Amino acid sequence: MQRVQRTALVLFANDGYGAVSIEAIAQAAEVGVATIFRHFGTKDRIVLWDEAEEDIAESLFAAVEQFGIRHAILGFAARLDEAERQFRQLVLARLALIQHEPELDAQAAINLRELGRGVSLALARRRGAKQVSLPDNAAGQVIAAALSTAISEWGRLKGKRPMRVLTEEVLSGVRSIMLE
Asked: pTM value?
């Protein structure tokens, strides 16, 4: 499915997101249309979903639960910094497309809320609670937004600054604002 993603991203860059059909992606990637629908469901999920990122998100939630927010977020950033060049390039291409396509940006915002819910649940579990509290929910959404901000900046800079450094800056800024 990474081949499908890479093929789709090249087609989107060359022809524009709106001009490329799933059929064109399937043909260029030499897979069936049904295969793309089975794995991705929609064209926007080709850009927005990556099974490696699901594993990373699950690791993030587990780290929040076990070690706390700061350690978990910085560990997430370090994993991106240490990822293979090909994976990093794929993520950067996806980020560039999301920033230029309102439809993808809107769906990314929905995905961000889901990430915040996952962090909120991990925070509740860290406290030993069975339910997410309002503070857990608020903190989860703030952390997801902070992480999204760091990722967006990393994409804007085309990966030239380490994600861990950007994440440190964002967390420091959030912390100082929250303490005012």
From this structure: 0.86
